[in-house]
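Let's sit down with a protein and look at its sequence and fold side by side. We need material for that, and I hope you will provide a protein of your own picking. Once you have written the record down, we can walk along the chain together.

***
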Amino acid sequence: MDLDVFVSAHRAEWDRLDALLRRHRRLTGAEADELVTLYQRTATHLSLIQSSAPDPQLTGRLSQLVARARSAVTGTRRASWRDVTRFLTQGFPAAVYRSRHWWVPTALVSTVVAALLGWWIGTHPEVQASIAAPDELRELTRPGGRYETYYSSHPAAAFAAQVWTNNAQAAAMCLVLGVFLGLPVLWILFQNMLNLGVGAGLMSSVGRLDTFLGLVLPHGLLELTAVFVAAGTGLRLGWTVIDPGPRSRRTALAEEGRAAIAMAIGLALVLFVSGAIEGFVTPSGLPTWARVAIGVTAELAFLTYVHVLGGRAARAGETGDLQAAERSATVPTAA
């Protein structure tokens, strides 16, 4: 594309659009129609320049012009309870459902890694000795030791809030850092599995694996599922950088990135539930079977929610991205 020729051919349209946007009086019907037409043309021009002959100054000017025109055409839109309902019943579950081919394998592989780490630590005393001194290990794993008292060491509400904040940050980091080819996601995931494996290994070495699982499963099922969803989605975002498919890389990253950010909000709600279970149920005086049953019920409820509502919304075309009217105009890309 010859940028100078392109600018000369379309400058008059951009100037006319700018003039219409500066009008202080109400536009006539013909002027409103003209504004819509010029907005659509300018959005197309912007996409062509970005993909074929990017020029920072011109791109900045047209981006600002398109944003102003879009605001004038669509009007100011405020979020409503309908948006919240749509997000919870369609957008979020559909985004999780669409990512299942990434987060389900991630969950399976991660669980195997954690189990292997736990077995390795639990069956090798020299590895245990490298983790902590013998006295510290005994204090960790004895009945009434630090592993058991950890969940009741703070007031339930404060503990639940702290757990929720930490887990939500970890999930958000997986989603956001996935754009770096997914490498930071793998590290975050490994750290989580290592912590789980260390606890399982140390407790199994003294014959108390059942106690460990009784403490972890009530909140851990839902909590780890949320982490796996975040990690799988982050890895998918990283793969989009490598292979955007039939879309342009810019468009693919924008769509998947917006869906990932929206998913972070949904997962924060899921982690709020798991945090509440960890703060109030895990350290409670309920028998182990009752605490585990609550965790299993929460996990099954989430999976059913994703499969039923998410599957239905995904089959209807929902992706978890913004609605079409809220997205910027793009130029079709040849397959």
